[in-house]
Amino acid sequence: MQYVVIKCGGSIVDELPDSFFEDLATLANREDVAPIIVHGGGPMISSQLKQLNVTTTFEKGLRVTTEEVLDVVEMVLSGAVNKQIVRKLSANGAKAIGLSGIDGGLIEAEAVDEAKQIGFVGQVTAVNIDVIQSLTNMQHIPVISPIGMGKDQQRYNINADTAAGAIAEYLGASLLYISDIPGVLKNDQLLHQLSKAEVEQLIEEAVIYGGMIPKVTAALAALEKGVPEVAIVSGLEKGALIDFVDKKPVGTNFSLSEVSYV
Ligand SMILES: Nc1ncnc2c1ncn2[C@@H]1O[C@H](COP(=O)(O)OP(=O)(O)O)[C@@H](O)[C@H]1O
Ligand SMILES: CC(=O)N[C@@H](CCC(=O)OP(=O)(O)O)C(=O)O
């Protein structure tokens, strides 16, 4: 079985066309492929926090998460965004089940920073893949929000790019990041292939910045942990999902090789 973890960024969730969900339904019906969605919702969390007059700040692309912020993060991610994706999948012929990383003990997490300077931001310590496999065995698409729980029963807010990378690692799945850009860009040109050294250089030159930093970092970490393929692609590119599964080039692909592509 080829597992494919598809991470949908909050930047694109509202814009995803029906064809995207139809492609997912097609993939879920194939005997050889099992798609799994992990989603973000950063812009929706920020707008809800604004409405509630709660200020929010980021450190290196991660949201500083107090207990008050965490309540809103969980409500938006595991509520509104998760159910929106499940509804769209159902409307386009797919069977989908929404769950958070807390359901079924799916994502175990611990604080990224023990001193909790950035609050309850988590990193994944284990993934219970039995929960995912029991759903994919029934041709259902798991739709997962990136909230995890610690051994101490504490909830954690996990960056969705990181959560998707960890889930792909535990499943041995390939990993596709769906965002609002066609891939990593430099001077408005799409970079089709990037090595680890090139990514590091592009971050240093600030060509890669903001939310793209956790994405490329998670992409490389996933490759290092044995994930076979990682790419970033626009959610608006028709057929990109199926092309990725069929190993055709899409968006930006990452490799650990020393070869220079740029
Ligand atoms: N070199 C780059 N190429 C493309 N996008 C970049 C780059 N560096 C930073 N970005 C920013 O990263 C954003 C995607 O990251 P993010 O907003 O976190 O998306 P998502 O919600 O899909 O995870 C792009 O919209 C763009 O503003
Ligand atoms: C710790 C941390 O930063 N968590 C993210 C979780 C959502 C997310 O990652 O959403 P995108 O994929 O849309 O960016 C946040 O609070 O915004």
TrEMBL record:
GO molecular function terms listed in the Swiss-Prot or TrEMBL record: acetylglutamate kinase activity; ATP binding
Name of one Pfam family that matches: AA_kinase
CDD domains assigned: AAK_NAGK-like (cd04238)
Localization in the cell: Cytoplasm
Binding site residues for substrate: 41-42, 63, 157
Catalytic activity line of the entry: N-acetyl-L-glutamate + ATP = N-acetyl-L-glutamyl 5-phosphate + ADP
Matches recorded under InterPro entries: AceGlu_kinase-like_sf, AcgluKinase_fam, ArgB, Asp/Glu/Uridylate_kinase
Name of the molecule in the record: Acetylglutamate kinase
